[in-house]
Amino acid sequence: MTDPHGIERLHARADFDDIYERVLVPSFPAHELEQPESLWQQIAAGGLHAFAARGAGGRFDSVVMVADHAPVALVLYLAIDPTGRGSGTGSRLIRFATDFAARDLRADYVLAEVESPARHGPHPTYGDPRARLRFYARQGMRLLDAPYFQPGIGPGAPRVPALLLGLLAAKDAVRTDAGVLAPPLAAFMRSYLVASEGRLGDDGATVRLLAALDRPVVRTLPANDYREVAHGDLVGEAETHAPAP
């Protein structure tokens, strides 16, 4: 698949490995980035879809992935080579990924994760959460009012506290005046936690997150109102890491 703007599906393992090392590794802390073999296995199995755009030299220099958790799709690992930032490539990739999820995956909800500027400051390597949230606000993101944290990548792995779970798109059937229907999101969250961490934990952070989604409707807020969102702060060893095997 290639769109008119030059975004292509990553089919070849060599292309994937190249962009993983050159673009993904410098863009994410090691504990937030799955190993290439795991990601490629998910791509080969059809549950994860990876797309990339080429830079001026013809080499892939940006990437985005979409995980299919029907009826929810999760946009992951948006990364741009530093030489290509500010060119509009990130916006094109997000729009492409969102449209792909809604059209091809028939997702009722399209979500993305972003650090909360209320808890995370600028980093010399990984960027400024405020700028990142402004970027997503321009893409129309609204925030789910749930105390979200990024699950650990594997049993016992560290979690990332105080992330925001943003809604990039939602079909009319799941929208309400107060927000969006919550039961499919609660089901998604349980399966996502199990897939990431190995099993569903009974720690306080997991209980708080699921309690926020175990209701008829979860409200959404504009991205600029991130301070009003319940934050997924983590306290103690039982919350800061995925449950042990």
UniProtKB/TrEMBL annotation:
Organism per entry: Rarobacter incanus
SUPFAM superfamilies: Acyl-CoA N-acyltransferases (Nat)
InterPro entries the record matches: Acyl_CoA_acyltransferase, GNAT_dom
GO terms, molecular function: acyltransferase activity, transferring groups other than amino-acyl groups
Protein's name in the database: N-acetyltransferase domain-containing protein
Domain N-acetyltransferase: 6-170
